Amino acid sequence: MAPETATGTGQPGRDCPFCPRLVAFRHENRLRLPHCHNAPVPSFGPLHARLLIVGLAPGLKGANCSGRPFTGDHAGDLLYATLLKVGLASGSYGRRAGDELRLEGVRITNAVRCVPPQNKPEPIEIRTCNAFLAAEIAAMPALQVVLALGSIAHGAVLSAAGLRKSHAAFRHGALHSLPSGLTLADSYHCSRYNTNTKRLTATMFESVVGALAERLR
User: Fold this and answer.
1) What is the pLDDT of residue 9?
2) 105 with 50: CB under 8 angstroms?
3) Are 107 and 47 in contact (CB under 8 A)?
4) Hey, what domains does the chain have and what are their CATH numbers?
């Protein structure tokens, strides 16, 4: 797969054909959930941002429906509330694309752009979609920091940089210097599972994101 198949920079087309299982699930969802976006979810935020946040994949009834990363589910509630609190967003979050939320110096995307069955992308799907992530990172001229939400996103960022996973181990709150000059930052994913089990608290998440906001001011 080559990034030039994308519409825009680093964005797969609406009917991206490269992952058969995800294509089949997309068609199924277009019948079951006709009101939803049901297509690869485009990134959100300016290309001139200095911070890129990378999640795992769209949620079935969250981003897959709204058409905007992390919008419409629990993870987005925590993510966008945190961005607003630390000054990386303005306006208000309404759990839908087209609300009054504006990102300030940050862009948000996913390692896998299409919703996977059971919210679990397979390794080959992560690898296939990685060309889009690499193209997006390359197209962000002011990018300084990439925040990976979870170990899969962490590995996807390393792959997009042409590095092995062994180059840097995922650890919540860690900062890794990459050969390109970018900094890779890690946080547990802001999913309901992690917050319900207290693996990640709102305070922990705000600490990571707030520190990056201060670093980039």
Assistant:
1) 60
2) yes
3) yes
4) 18-216 (3.40.470.10)
